[in-house]
Specification:
This protein is an all-alpha fold and 95 residues long. The protein is built from 5 helices and no strands. The longest helix has 23 residues, at 69-91. It is globular, with a radius of gyration of 14 Å. The two termini are 15 Å apart.
Length: 95
């Protein structure tokens, strides 16, 4: 996804790292870049809100269970691929 507006940090990068941001698993410098982007980009902020709700729902349903590290990494990789694939498919849609 890209909103079409120029940003210091690309929309695809922000959305690919939104779970790291939500889980406080990224470095402070990267966290600040993502937060600044979300403050400026309505499209990404909307996506972030959806991701935040999904995360809250999973937390309520799963309690204190944590996924194995290998599973989390596979999911992050697949989500990154899906974001890229979705963005690529949108480039070919007529305006």
């Amino acid at each position: 996804m890209s909103c079409g507006e120029p940003h210091e940090t690309d929309c695809r990068e922000v959305l690919a790292e939104v779970y790291l941001y939500l889980d406080l698993e990224c470095a402070d410098e990267r966290r600040n870049l993502i937060r600044d982007h979300l403050d400026d980009c309505t499209g990404c902020l909307r996506e972030y809100g959806i991701e935040q709700e999904v995360k809250a729902l999973v937390a309520r349903c799963c309690g204190n269970e944590t996924a194995p590290t290998e599973l989390r990494e596979r999911l992050r990789l697949r989500l990154t691929e899906l974001v890229f694939e979705t963005d690529q498919s949108r480039e070919f849609l007529p305006d």
